[in-house]
Amino acid sequence: MKTLYNRVFGQYWNPVRTLVVAGIFSAAYFGLTGTVWAVTGEFTRLGGHVVEFFGGDVSGWAYFDLVHLEGSSFARSDGWIVWGMLIGALITVLLANNFKIRKPQQKRRYVQGVIGGAIAGFGARLAMGCNLAAFFTGVPQFSFHSWIFIVATGIGTFMGVKVAKTKWWKGKPKLMKGGPAPVPKREKRIVQPYVGGLIALLYAALIVWFFVTGRPLLGTAAIFGAIFGILIERGQICFTSAFRDLWLTGRTLMAKAIVIAMAVSSVLTILIIANTGMTPITQVASIGTFVGGFLFGLGIVLASSCETGMMYRLMEGQVLYLFVFAGNLIGVTALAFAWDHLGVYNVLVAGGEKLNLIPAMGPGWAIIATLTMLAGCYLFIVIYSKHKRGTLILPKGEKQIVS
């Protein structure tokens, strides 16, 4: 039993297997609820609640009508996807004895976290989705806006890497006298697994209560939210690292894992749609999709994390990501205000249209086109990785990185 526990919580999981499992559960969640795994829509509603808490009136904001700002976050299924992800990630962090308050060495990182988070949040909601709804779960819904978002995010992260490498962004390194710092011994935090187990029991009781009191949708969202939280934490799933590693060093493991998982999820989703007649979720493809995807890609690199990475890192005790989360709320709320008050919708979105590949091409061609696009992404990752590694200048005797 101890050996099994150590295998599960003593090391992180293979990201390819973990993301494939996430893709399977994502398709299953759509099949059960008719909605998708997403987070920034709920972040936007939370931003609206914050404005209301401080006395603001958002009743005239068109974007909040679009995302259905009604009731409380604890009464919405999208809310329990978010809370479930946080709780699921926290449970596994505690069971793995990995919770520890960590602060960045440079105070400027807090400001950068807010700035990057705000840019990413603004971009995500302009494109109607982040690395989930407009990327990982958007592609398997066969919404063409996800194709645009992927390209734009790639360009945005590439530019973000260029900015993050500059001296004025990185700041001056701190020089310390003496030899190398001693390697700290791993602290024995015996209480953490017990706390994690207790939280898991209480959360399971909450889920049972949802079903007993006639709220199965909330119970289902709470279950899947926790599963997604567990998976992203154990697999250390972060879309920022997938792009950043590729652009910087040619590492491909996370990027390949994302593509493979989307392919699996797409096949399962098309089978669900074909057998149930369910309507796939489609968002508007517009100039705003590209601009939003670019800003999202730029922002997540500057913030050092996408939304999923931010959530599990926050549960690990990394203080920086509290600032990234605050930046996200600022960004999504700013977009909600700018949508109609500053004419963002009329300039960037109004000319677009919803395009889904299934009604446009038929189910067969839709899945062929999607898998072909993903194969193209995979091929690009492989080719770029070989090119990048070929241009890296390594110190004598140092080996190249292998994915």
From TrEMBL:
<protein>
    <submittedName>
        <fullName>YeeE/YedE family protein</fullName>
    </submittedName>
</protein>
<feature type="transmembrane region" description="Helical">
    <location>
        <begin position="319"/>
        <end position="339"/>
    </location>
</feature>
<keyword id="KW-0997">Cell inner membrane</keyword>
<feature type="transmembrane region" description="Helical">
    <location>
        <begin position="286"/>
        <end position="307"/>
    </location>
</feature>
<feature type="transmembrane region" description="Helical">
    <location>
        <begin position="80"/>
        <end position="99"/>
    </location>
</feature>
<keyword id="KW-1003">Cell membrane</keyword>
<keyword id="KW-0472">Membrane</keyword>
<feature type="transmembrane region" description="Helical">
    <location>
        <begin position="194"/>
        <end position="211"/>
    </location>
</feature>
<comment type="similarity">
    <text>Belongs to the TsuA/YedE (TC 9.B.102) family.</text>
</comment>
<keyword id="KW-1133">Transmembrane helix</keyword>
<feature type="transmembrane region" description="Helical">
    <location>
        <begin position="111"/>
        <end position="136"/>
    </location>
</feature>
<dbReference type="InterPro" id="IPR047732">
    <property type="entry name" value="YedE-like"/>
</dbReference>
<keyword id="KW-0812">Transmembrane</keyword>
<feature type="transmembrane region" description="Helical">
    <location>
        <begin position="217"/>
        <end position="232"/>
    </location>
</feature>
<feature type="transmembrane region" description="Helical">
    <location>
        <begin position="364"/>
        <end position="384"/>
    </location>
</feature>
<feature type="transmembrane region" description="Helical">
    <location>
        <begin position="142"/>
        <end position="164"/>
    </location>
</feature>
<dbReference type="Pfam" id="PF04143">
    <property type="entry name" value="Sulf_transp"/>
</dbReference>
<feature type="transmembrane region" description="Helical">
    <location>
        <begin position="253"/>
        <end position="274"/>
    </location>
</feature>
<keyword id="KW-0813">Transport</keyword>
<feature type="transmembrane region" description="Helical">
    <location>
        <begin position="20"/>
        <end position="39"/>
    </location>
</feature>
<dbReference type="InterPro" id="IPR007272">
    <property type="entry name" value="Sulf_transp_TsuA/YedE"/>
</dbReference>
